[in-house]
Amino acid sequence: MVADHTFVLVRKHGSPTKYRAEVQAVGHECDLAILVVENEEFWKGMNFLELGDIPFLQEAVAVVGYPQGNNITRHFFILATAFFKPLLFFSIF
Question: Which residues contact 1 (CB under 8 A, 6 or more apart)?
């Protein structure tokens, strides 16, 4: 979503207000980006997500995201296999 970006705007779910975001890093291989929003108004009323440890095999996990870019989805799984792959194409700006 931010490949070859020149200007990035973000908004909170359900809000029409857009805020400027700065791209810190892009992982093209995994379709992720690290964005920074400096406007304090954007963060008002937000609950921060606390990330936990890497789950064990056979542990229940939840996956949340926007796979189509517009509607949030949630899926719950039992972790059957896991492998770790280094991100070779992660661009830091």
Answer: 31, 33, 69
CB 59 within 8 A of CB 78: yes
- Which positions ≥6 away from 93 have C-beta within 8 Å? 23, 24, 25, 26
Rounded Cα distance between 83 and 57, Å, is 11
Instruction: Specify the number of domains making up the chain.
Output: 1
Structural domain contains residue 3: no
Q: Is residue 90 part of a domain?
A: no
Whole-structure pTM over 0.85, yes or no?
no
Q: Which domain holds residue 31?
A: 8-82
Could you give the 3-state DSSP secondary structure of residue 41? helix
pLDDT digits (tens, 9 = 90+) for 17-28: 999 999 988 887
- Are the C-beta atoms of residues 12 and 42 closer than 8 Å to each other? yes
